[in-house]
TrEMBL record:
Residues 791-859 form the PEP-utilising enzyme mobile domain. GO terms for molecular function: ATP binding; kinase activity. It comes from Dactylosporangium siamense. Pfam families: PEP-utilizers, PPDK_N. InterPro entries: ATP_grasp_subdomain_1, PEP-util_enz_mobile_dom, PEP_Utilizing_Enz, Phosphohistidine_dom_sf, PPDK_AMP/ATP-bd. Residues 72-291 form the Pyruvate phosphate dikinase AMP/ATP-binding domain. This is Phosphoenolpyruvate synthase. PANTHER family: PHOSPHOENOLPYRUVATE SYNTHASE-RELATED (PTHR43615), PPDK_N DOMAIN-CONTAINING PROTEIN (PTHR43615:SF1).
Length: 868
C-alpha cells in the first residue's frame, strides 16, 4: 500500500493536513508520513465488539491486534531507513456520517487519542495499531457520548513523523491566551515538549511584544527526556549550569515569536504552535492549531488611589457625581493637551467608563484610562510613574508596543504649554474664587433655580477643570527630570523631599493653619476649652460660640472660617456625608484634636523653616557646583509650584463637591416635602441625573421612593460584605454582576512585592524628610480618637484631607499608596512630619504597636520590635 502526501482533513485530519501544508510552504516541519483514516476504517470493519458494558474494551483489544498494511511500513522504511526514530501520533477525523469528532477543526476532539515518542522503526506498526485502539479509551468514549456522538463512528488518522532530538521545547501563542491581547506568550523548558504540554517540567514564560521581551523565570530542577529502560519518558534533573538561566535568550524568544507570527499569517488567524530546538539552535515546528480566544480581553479594575477620595461604600449619588466629574474634567484635559477633537470624540465612550461602581465601591476601569491616556502625546514618558501611582501591577500593565519617538517628538510642544501653565492655573483659581463668591446663600432659591445653577456650574467644569489635570502631567515630567539630576549631581534622590519643602502655603495648609488659629483662641478660654475637649453637647457649644457668648472675635473668626473652609471635612467628596456647611457644629470635631494637642501656628511655621534650612545646608555639601545647585533649586521651585497647585485645586474640588452637595441636599428636602421621598437623605441612593430629572423632565421613571428603597437595600447589603482587593480582573462575558457574584469569576491580581530585607526593612518613596522612631499606630478607619496617634507613627492604606487632624498628631506617616505628589506626601512635607508613601502591604506587614524607625529621606521603615 502506497501512502500519498495529502492535505485533505477528511482523510488525515486537520492536525496533519496543516503540517503537510506548512512543510510544503517551507516551514521547519520535520518530515512525516500520514496513515489516512481509510486504513483505520478497513481495520474497524474487521472488528465485532458486540454489546455490553465492556464492548469498547473489546474494541481496543481487537484494534491493537489489527494488522497494519504492509505498504505503510514499506514506505516508512524506504523514506527514513531502519535506524530512524519517530513520533507516532493519532488524530481524530470528522465522521462522514455525523460530521462530528474532528480534532482541531471547528469541533475540537483534541487530546483524546494517544501519541508515542521515540518509536524505533521496528515498533512503528505496533504503535500505529495502538493509536487506532486509543479511539475507544474510556475518556474518548465518555467525551463523545457527552457530546451526543456515536463512539462507533470514530475515525483515526496516524502521523509517523521523524523524531527531532530537541534539547529545549516550547509552546507559543500568537495572542495572549488570557485576554487575546496582541503579544506572543511562550512557555519553554529544557528537554522535550511533553514537559511543557503536560506541565511536568519547570517552565519559563516569555512575553514578546514587538522587540521587547519580558520573562517570568523559575529555578529549574525538572525536565522531561528520552525514554528510560521501561520505554516511558523520563523525568530528569536539569544540569546545574542551566538551573538559574532562562531557557531562551531574547534573540531565541523573538525567533520563536516570529515563527508563530508566520504561522498566524499563513493560516489567517491566531495560532498555538509547539516546537523544539536542537543543540545547534535550530527551531523545528511540530504542531500548529487555531487558538481558542476568550470572548474578549479581561477587564481590569483598580481603586488603589481613588479610595482616598471615596473610601468604603459610596451611594449612587456620590458615584454618579464622581462619574460626572471624571467625564467632564478629563474631556477638557485631553483637549488642552493637544489631543485632536476627532480623537476625543471617538473615545467619548471611554470617558463614561473611567469610574465604576463595584459592590458599592468606586473603582477605576483601567482599560478606559489606558485608551484615553494613550492618546496623550507624551504619556509614554510618564507611563511607569502613572501606573505606579494608580497601583497597576503585573498583568494589568499592558505592554508598550509603540516606539517612544512619538512621545519625544511631542515633548517640545508640551514644554511650551508648561511655560503657560502658571498663568492658566492662576486664572483658574481666580475664576473659581469668583464662582464661590457669586454662589452665596442658596436658601432663597427655588428648586428649578437650584437645578439651573447646578447645570450651569458643571457646564463650566467641562471647559475649565482640565487646567487642574494638566498640572499633574507637567508635574510627572518635572519630577522625573529632578530625580534624574539629583542622581547625577547630588549622589542620589535623598534630597528630593527636602527640596519640596517650603514656599507659599497651599489652600489645604491654609485651612489647617486657620483651624489651629481657632484652636488657639478656644484654648485661651478655660471653660470653652474644657467643653470642646469633652466633645459633649456640640450643638449647644457651637450655638454659644456663634452667637458671641465667648466673645465677638471668636464668633467672627469661626464665621470667617466657615465662609472659606466649611466644605472641608472627613470624606468630603462623598455626598452622603455632611460637612460644616450643612452642620456647622461639626467644626468642633475638627478643632477638638488641635485644642487637645496644643498646636500653634508658630510651631508649624518654625518646623517648616527648620526643614528648609537643613535641606539648603545638605544641598551645598552634596552638590558644590553653583550652577548645578541653581538648576536644582529652579526645577524644585517648579515642582513645589506644581504641588501647591495640586493641593489648591484639590481644595477647589472639595468646594465644587460642597456646592453640589448643598444644591442636591436642598432638592432632596424638597422631594421629601412634596412626598416623593420618605427622608430628605434618601437622595444618597439616587443618581444626580435622577434628582435633577425629577424637575426638568429628564427622568424616565417617577417612582423615586421605590428606586431609592431598592438601592438602599443593595447598599446596606454591600456594607456587610468584605472589601474586594484593590486590583481586580473580571472576564468580559455576561453582565458584570454575574462575574462579581462568584469568587471563581473574579481574580485578584497579585502584585509582586518584596519581602522585608534582613532586619525587617520595608521600602517605599521617601516623601518628607526626617528620621523618627516610635510605635506604629495602624489606622484603617480615620474615625478614631486623635490622641491614639499622639507620639506614634501613623500606618494607613491611604489618607485624604480629612485625615489632617490625625496626621498632625502623629510623629510620622507610613502609607501603602500614593506618589511623591500625593496628598499624603505634600501634607507630610508642609507639616514637617517624616513621611514614606507607596510601602507595599504596610498595614499587613507592620504590626500595630510595633516599634519602628522611619526615614523619610531614604524611604525606609525598619521594624525594630514586634511590640513597643
Amino acid at each position: 500500500m502506497t501512502i500519498q502526501t495529502v492535505t485533505d482533513p477528511a482523510l488525515v485530519g486537520h492536525k496533519f493536513a496543516r503540517l503537510h501544508r506548512m512543510r510544503a510552504a517551507g516551514f521547519p516541519v520535520p518530515d512525516l508520513i500520514t496513515v489516512p483514516a481509510t486504513a483505520f476504517d478497513a481495520a474497524w470493519q474487521e472488528v465485532d465488539p458486540g454489546d455490553g458494558p465492556d464492548r469498547w474494551a473489546r474494541a481496543r483489544d481487537a484494534l491493537r491486534a489489527a494488522p497494519v498494511p504492509a505498504g505503510i511500513l514499506d514506505e516508512v522504511g524506504a523514506r527514513f531507513g531502519p535506524d530512524a526514530v519517530f513520533a507516532v501520533r493519532a488524530c481524530a477525523v470528522a465522521s462522514t456520517v455525523d460530521g462530528g469528532g474532528g480534532e482541531d477543526g471547528a469541533d475540537p476532539f483534541a487530546g483524546m487519542s494517544d501519541s508515542f515518542l521515540y518509536v524505533p522503526a521496528d515498533r512503528v506498526a505496533e504503535r500505529i495499531a495502538a493509536c487506532w485502539a486509543s479511539a475507544f479509551t474510556a475518556r474518548a468514549v465518555a467525551y463523545r457520548q457527552l457530546r451526543g456522538l456515536d463512539p462507533a463512528r470514530t475515525r483515526i488518522a496516524v502521523g509517523v513523523q521523524l523524531m527531532v532530538p530537541g534539547t529545549r521545547s516550547f509552546v507559543a501563542f500568537t495572542r495572549d491566551p488570557r485576554d487575546g491581547a496582541r503579544r506572543t506568550v511562550i512557555a519553554a523548558a529544557h528537554g522535550i515538549g511533553e514537559g511543557v504540554v503536560q506541565e511536568k517540567a519547570d517552565v519559563d514564560h516569555f512575553h514578546v511584544a514587538g522587540p521587547t521581551v519580558t520573562a517570568d523565570l523559575v529555578r529549574k530542577e525538572r525536565m522531561v527526556g528520552p525514554p528510560d529502560g521501561s520505554g516511558d519518558l523520563a523525568l530528569l534533573p536539569v544540569p546545574a549550569g542551566l538551573a538559574a538561566a532562562p531557557v531562551l535568550d531574547d534573540r531565541t524568544a523573538r525567533a520563536v515569536a516570529a515563527l508563530a507570527a508566520r504561522a498566524e499569517a499563513f493560516f489567517g488567524g491566531p495560532q498555538d504552535i509547539e516546537g523544539t530546538i536542537t543543540a545547534d539552535g535550530v527551531l523545528h515546528l511540530v504542531q500548529a492549531r487555531p487558538m481558542v480566544l476568550p470572548a474578549g480581553p479581561p477587564v481590569y479594575w483598580a481603586n488603589h488611589n481613588i479610595t482616598e477620595s471615596y473610601p468604603g461604600i459610596s451611594g449612587a449619588l456620590t458615584f454618579s457625581q464622581a462619574q460626572e466629574f471624571y467625564r467632564r474634567a478629563f474631556g477638557d484635559l485631553y483637549h488642552r493637551m493637544g489631543v485632536p477633537a476627532r480623537t476625543v470624540d471617538a473615545n467619548r465612550h471611554h470617558l463614561e467608563q473611567l469610574v465604576a461602581h463595584l459592590d458599592g465601591r468606586v473603582y477605576y476601569r483601567l482599560g478606559a484610562w489606558h485608551a484615553l491616556h494613550g492618546q496623550l502625546p507624551v504619556f509614554d514618558l510618564v507611563r511607569d510613574v502613572w501606573q505606579d501611582g494608580m497601583g497597576v501591577t503585573g498583568e494589568a500593565r499592558p505592554p508598550v508596543t509603540r516606539p517612544r519617538r512619538r512621545a519625544w517628538l511631542a515633548l517640545p510642544g508640551t514644554l511650551l504649554r508648561a511655560t503657560r501653565h502658571p498663568r492658566r492655573a492662576a486664572g483658574f483659581l481666580r475664576w473659581w474664587d469668583g464662582v464661590m463668591d457669586e454662589s452665596g446663600d442658596l436658601s432663597g432659591r427655588t428648586p428649578h433655580q437650584l437645578v439651573a445653577a447646578y447645570r450651569e456650574l458643571w457646564a463650566a467644569v467641562s471647559v475649565r477643570w482640565g487646567v487642574t489635570l494638566t498640572n499633574s502631567i507637567y508635574g510627572l515630567l518635572a519630577v522625573k527630570v529632578l530625580m534624574r539630576l539629583l542622581d547625577r549631581w547630588a549622589g542620589g534622590k535623598g534630597l528630593f523631599t527636602g527640596l519640596l519643602t517650603g514656599g507659599p502655603a497651599n489652600r489645604s495648609l491654609e485651612s489647617v493653619r486657620a483651624a489651629v488659629a481657632l484652636a488657639e483662641l478656644i484654648a485661651a478660654d478655660p471653660g470653652l476649652r474644657a467643653a470642646v475637649e469633652a466633645g459633649e453637647r456640640p450643638r449647644e457649644v457651637w450655638h454659644d460660640i456663634s452667637t458671641g457668648r465667648h466673645g465677638a472675635p471668636l464668633a467672627e473668626a469661626v464665621a470667617g472660617y466657615l465662609r472659606r473652609y466649611s466644605d472641608r471635612a472627613l470624606h468630603d467628596l462623598k455626598l452622603e456625608q455632611p460637612t460644616p456647611r450643612q452642620q456647622p457644629w461639626l467644626l468642633l470635631e475638627v478643632l477638638r484634636p488641635y485644642v487637645i494637642q496644643g498646636r500653634t501656628v508658630e510651631a508649624l511655621l518654625e518646623a517648616e523653616r527648620l526643614a528648609v534650612h537643613q535641606t539648603a545646608g545638605e544641598l551645598a555639601a552634596r552638590c558644590p557646583g553653583r550652577l548645578r545647585r541653581t538648576a536644582l533649586r529652579t526645577l524644585s521651585r517648579y515642582v513645589r509650584f506644581i504641588a501647591r497647585v495640586r493641593e489648591d485645586t484639590r481644595f477647589c474640588r472639595t468646594q465644587l463637591y460642597g456646592l453640589s452637595r448643598d444644591i442636591l441636599w436642598r432638592l432632596g428636602a424638597d422631594l421629601h416635602t412634596t412626598g416623593h421621598l420618605d427622608d430628605p437623605l434618601d437622595i444618597r441612593d439616587l443618581t444626580v441625573a435622577e434628582v435633577l430629572g425629577a424637575y426638568d423632565g429628564t427622568l424616565p421613571c417617577a417612582a423615586l421612593r421605590d428606586l431609592a428603597a431598592a438601592r438602599r437595600r443593595e447598599r446596606l447589603l454591600a456594607e456587610t460584605r468584605p472589601a474586594r482587593p484593590g486590583l481586580l480582573r473580571t472576564p468580559a462575558t455576561g453582565p458584570l454582576r454575574d462575574a462579581l457574584s462568584s469568587a471563581l469569576e473574579v481574580t485578584a491580581v497579585t502584585a509582586v512585592t518584596a519581602e522585608p530585607a534582613a532586619g525587617g526593612v520595608l521600602t517605599g518613596l521617601g516623601s518628607a524628610p526626617g528620621v523618627v522612631r516610635a510605635p506604629a499606630r495602624l489606622v484603617l478607619d480615620p474615625a478614631v480618637a486623635p490622641e491614639t496617634c499622639r507620639d506614634a507613627i501613623l500606618v494607613a492604606r491611604e489618607t485624604d484631607p480629612g485625615w489632617l487632624f490625625l496626621m498632625m498628631a502623629a510623629k510620622g506617616l507610613v502609607v501603602e499608596r500614593g506618589t511623591l505628589l500625593s496628598h499624603t506626601a505634600i501634607t507630610g512635607r508642609l507639616l514637617g512630619v517624616p513621611t514614606v508613601v507607596a510601602v507595599p502591604d504596610a498595614t499587613s506587614r507592620i504590626p500595630d504597636g510595633a516599634l519602628i524607625e522611619l526615614d523619610g529621606t531614604a524611604g525606609t521603615v525598619r521594624i525594630l520590635k514586634e511590640s513597643a
